[in-house]
Amino acid sequence: MKENQQFQENENELNENQHIEETAEQENAAAGAGSDASSTEEENLETVNAAQLQSEVQRLQALADEYQQRALRTQADFDNFRKRTQKEKEDFAKYASSKLITELLPIIDNFDRAISAAGDNAEIESFAKGVSMIFRQLEGVLKAEGLEAMDTVGQPFNPEFHQAIMQVESDEYEEGTVVEEVQKGYMLKDRVLRPAMVKVSM
Low complexity: which segments have biased composition (predicted)? Predict the structure, then answer.
């Protein structure tokens, strides 16, 4: 009887130990599954964060490129403005006397006519010489400022330099050639100050 009771107790203890082991294994398995799930969630979160970071880097890079292009365009515009302003400043200094010289041209014309007319009269020859000296002096001052009379007779007609007032027949010159200068034309440096009035062969 005692032996049967002892055997039953041993069997109960064995079953209880087996039950404890099974419970522990189940708990360990559940803990392992939870750990795997947590690890997967962390990996997914890291992947999402990396994608968001990459997207933000790309956005900032595009923004930086846009700002760089704007800066380059602004620099180019500024350089063009500076060059244009410098050229305008140089042109202003170069042609600053053009208004004054233009107003003096009729006086030069009158000097020229007076000298030509006086040359035919012996009585006023000395006066003509004096006027001629004044004229040459004035001409020298204006020439120093860059004024040059155009050489027109015998040159092909060019509307940029000549103002045709008449067409005439000519055996000496080809068609479209300046045969006579009615009023002198003048250049101020490399710019036409006044076109020459001319007659052109037809």
Answer: 29-38
Q: Are residues 88 and 100 in the same domain?
A: no
Mean pLDDT of 121-146: 76
Number of domains composing the chain: 3
Residue 18, φ and ψ in degrees, nearest 5: -65, -40
Query: Among residues of the chain, what percentage have pLDDT more than 90?
Result: 14
Query: In this structure, are 44 and 114 located in the same domain?
Result: no
Q: Cα(163)–Cα(157) distance, rounded to whole angstroms?
A: 9
Structural domain boundaries, residue 123: 95-145
Residue 1 has pLDDT above 80, yes or no: no
Q: Which of 137, 142, 139, 115 is nearest to 128 (CA)?
A: 115
- Mean pLDDT for the stretch of residues 14-26: 61
Q: Residue 178's domain is classified under what CATH number?
A: 2.30.22.10
Q: Are residues 117 and 182 in the same domain?
A: no
How far apart CA 198 and CA 182 sit, in angstroms, is 5
- For residues 178 and 152, is the Cβ–Cβ distance under 8 A? yes
Q: Cα separation of 127 and 197, whole Å?
A: 29
